[in-house]
Amino acid sequence: LEHPSDSDRYCSPSGQIEDAYCLYETIEDATSNLYEPLSHLVHTPFFRYFKVDLFEECPFWQEDSLCMSRDCGVETEEDESKIPHKWRAQALSSLNDVQDANDSNHPACFARVSDFCYTPDDSSPSGVYVDLARNPERFTGYSGPSAQRVWDTIYKENCFGVADFFESSGRLQSGVAQVSQAPPSLGLLTGAGGALGAGQPGLEPGFDIDLDGENDMCVEKRVYYKLISGLHSSISMHICSEWLNQETGEWSPNLDCFTTKLSQYPERIQNIYFLHALLTRAVARARPLLDHYDTSVGDGIADALTRQYMNDTMDRVTACGDTFQEGTIFDGGPGKQILKEEFKAHFRNVSRIMDCVGCDKCRLWGKVQVSGIGAALKILFGLDGDEIKQPNTLQRSEVVALFNTFHRISESIENIEVFRKLYEARKTGV
Ligand code: FAD
């Protein structure tokens, strides 16, 4: 396998994806095979409805810059009959269980020990159903200090200090619940203190690590960074692919946007492939569970189609082979276990930072995709060989988020080809 390098073709990374165990070319081929069934899958009734609370307050600072653009709005599902009865019944029966949620800071959200994320689910008493297919992720106009602050804060979560602290002081413990003796700056792990990220030496957005020269950073930190940067790149890709021309009112790809936000930073493009490699492996690993997952909504024809698209997608994912080796991460003694708990705590913080996004549509897709990546991390690092066979280890919302995120990232890779063609056309004047 070759080291990653940019080939002569515009925006075409080639060779091995660092920290994943496959080639850029493998991911491109895989994407072109699985994109079609996956696109059908996310339009089925089971996968298109996501329950979400868009009015949760930002727990870290006062967020008052609401996006007034019409394109920031989310259409929620008013017609209750479209929501299968069993999902609604789950919400009713869980009303009394809310006090049992294990995160007292966030009563509407549940997180089990294996969870890398706070994912809203059908049993949350708050929240509304959103039809994701009717609310596409695209340009909304959300930008400026509010968006910048959210990205800044997310990148600053890439500061891992607890493992070093416990290792150096010899007090190795397990689980974030026990970090009460940690240094005061670690209040950010539980979101306490309101100054999340302030003064932390995390990675600034735009840092765009030069991975060739970055040997000091442990693989777990690199993985964290690449996941966040890959998500950021994918969001930028959808903004540029579905850009609103304010003069004509038309939605179309914008090559200048793509150049400014993505193509002039090759590592941002590479991180989309990395994220795809990790998601592909997570879906493959969860196949025993997903093959038996109940995706029925009570409509025989729709249910059979959902199963068919699911099988087609899974077959193509399995055909890719191993795209990521989860066994090499968090491997190597108690310090790495602490690091894993820390990684989990930081990623959970990212899911809560989504409540600080000042544009409903961006918040919706931010929540879906952070939940999807969180589900993938849970599958790879949180579930053992037996658990991965038990369908009830993943909630419906986690499965929905996982596949919708997989679809978003796959579409980003598909769109690279769209921009290659636009670039060629501009260059040759055709
Ligand atoms: P930003 O994208 O805001 O980036 C901030 C800084 O981060 C850049 O200056 C750069 O230094 C660095 N950076 C940029 N990309 C990367 C990368 N891939 N890796 C590492 N560093 C990077 N807007 C929409 O129109 N539609 C949406 O659906 C949408 N969803 C959003 C979801 C979330 C969670 C957030 C926080 C914002 C969302 N936005 C959305 C806003 C959008 O992401 C940008 O913030 C906005 O378009 C302004 O872009 P910018 O070019 O100023 O830089």
Describe the structure.
Its cofactor is FAD. Keywords: Disulfide bond, Electron transport, Endoplasmic reticulum, FAD, Flavoprotein, Glycoprotein, Membrane, Oxidoreductase, Redox-active center, Signal, Transport. One of its GO terms (biological process) is protein folding in endoplasmic reticulum. Belongs to the EROs family. 47% of the residues lie in helices and 4% in strands. By secondary structure, the protein is mostly helical. The strands form three sheets. Strands 1-2 form a two-stranded antiparallel ribbon. Helix 1 (24-41) crosses helix 13 (396-428) and helix 6 (219-241) crosses helix 13 (396-428). Mean pLDDT is 82; it is low at 1-7, 95-105, 162-201 and 209-214. The structure holds flavin-adenine dinucleotide. Flavin-adenine dinucleotide (FAD) is lined by residues 137, 139-143, 147-148, 150-151, 205-206, 208, 229, 232-233, 235-236, 239, 261, 268, 357, 361-362, 365-366.
